[in-house]
């Protein structure tokens, strides 16, 4: 039996929210709520708006993320605060605020799902260092396990996906410059595709993923999972 999906998406930019809403609308009822999720009050506002419409939430995907690349010598305070706020505090705040709705949806046979988007930057050490980003994603992977232990008995699974290189706004300049080299060095000899990420999220959200919790799933063509350290 298929259920009609009710989806809420969020990011800061109202125009991109509206565009994404339009693209996704063929799959269900989509609501777009612009919010700056690096702020605690904005996470709470988003959660309140989600809960106004429904007291149950089946799936929470913490995807928003930011990266800051700068040499060690000039790496500024702000590059810690902004990245940590969005990449690690925000998923915590959203889980905290949405927990009643997640617990309201989950059952022993069909738990609610939290899917955190981590990174292989927290599994191996990338050639170009990104201090706050890699650290924040390592924290998110561990928070995933901490939440998994606590929320399992409340019928909520918590897993993370750790992507390798995928085309996106965040990765545009890197992939323009060295995308071919990265693909050529990857064991599977290509970059990630959108359906690679979508497939993993569908798996975690489906019946097939209902007995996994506390896992970190690298989706990276083997880049970090077979790293040699050289
Ligand atoms: N692409 C990759 O190769 C790769 C690899 C490993 C991990 N990841 C992770 O995948 C996730 C998605 O990244 P992406 O590659 O798709 O990059 P992206 O295109 O830059 O997407 C980042 C998203 O986060 C939103 N965002 C940024 N700051 C925000 C804020 N303060 N509040 C709310 N939303 C905010 C952005 O929208 P607005 O600008 O409208 O706010 C955008 O939708 C991130 O967690 C990233 O770390 C990506």
What labels would you give this structure?
230 residues; alpha/beta; four-stranded parallel β-sheet; two-stranded parallel sheet; 6 helices; binds NADP nicotinamide-adenine-dinucleotide phosphate
Short synopsis of the structure:
The protein has 230 residues and is α/β, with parallel strands linked by helices.
Topology at a glance:
Elements lengths: L4 E5 L4 H11 L3 E5 L7 H14 L5 E4 L14 H29 L6 E6 L13 H21 L4 E8 L8 H14 L8 H12 L10 E4 L11
Parallel strand pairs: 1-2, 3-4, 4-5, 5-6
The structure holds NADP nicotinamide-adenine-dinucleotide phosphate.
Instruction: Determine Rg (CA atoms, Å).
Output: 18 Å
Placed side by side, the strands forming the largest sheet appear as 3-4-5-6
How much of the sequence lies in strands comes to 5-15%
Major sheet summary line: 4 strands, parallel
How many helices? The count is: 6
Question: Termini distance?
Answer: 50 Å
Low-confidence regions: none
Structural class comes to: alpha/beta
Ligand identities: NADP nicotinamide-adenine-dinucleotide phosphate
- Number of E strands: 6
Using the alpha-carbon principal axes, give the shape: globular
What is the residue-averaged pLDDT?
A: 96
- Which percent range fits the helix content? 40-55%
Q: What quaternary form is this?
A: single chain
What is the string of helix and strand elements? Answer: EHEHEHEHEHHE
């Amino acid at each position: 039996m298929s259920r009609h999906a009710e989806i809420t998406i969020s990011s800061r930019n109202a125009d991109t929210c509206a565009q994404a809403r339009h693209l996704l609308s063929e799959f269900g009822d989509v609501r777009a709520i612009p919010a700056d999720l690096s702020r605690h009050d904005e996470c709470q506002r988003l959660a309140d708006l989600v809960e106004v419409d429904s007291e149950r939430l089946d799936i929470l995907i913490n995807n928003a993320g930011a990266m800051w690349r700068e040499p060690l010598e000039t790496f500024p305070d702000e590059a810690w605060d902004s990245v940590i706020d969005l990449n690690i505090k925000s998923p915590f705040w959203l889980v905290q605020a949405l927990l009643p709705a997640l617990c309201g949806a989950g059952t022993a046979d069909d738990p609610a799902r939290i899917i955190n988007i981590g990174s292989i930057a927290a599994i191996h050490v990338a050639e170009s260092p990104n201090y706050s980003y890699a650290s924040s994603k390592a924290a998110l992977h561990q928070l995933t396990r901490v939440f998994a232990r606590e929320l399992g008995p409340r019928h909520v699974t918590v897993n993370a996906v750790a992507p390798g290189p995928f085309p996106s706004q965040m990765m545009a300049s890197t992939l323009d410059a060295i995308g071919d080299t990265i693909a050529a060095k990857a064991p599977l000899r290509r970059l990630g595709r959108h359906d690679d990420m979508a497939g993993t999220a569908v798996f975690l959200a489906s019946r097939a993923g209902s007995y996994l919790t506390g896992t970190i799933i690298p989706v990276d063509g083997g880049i970090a999972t077979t790293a040699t350290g050289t």
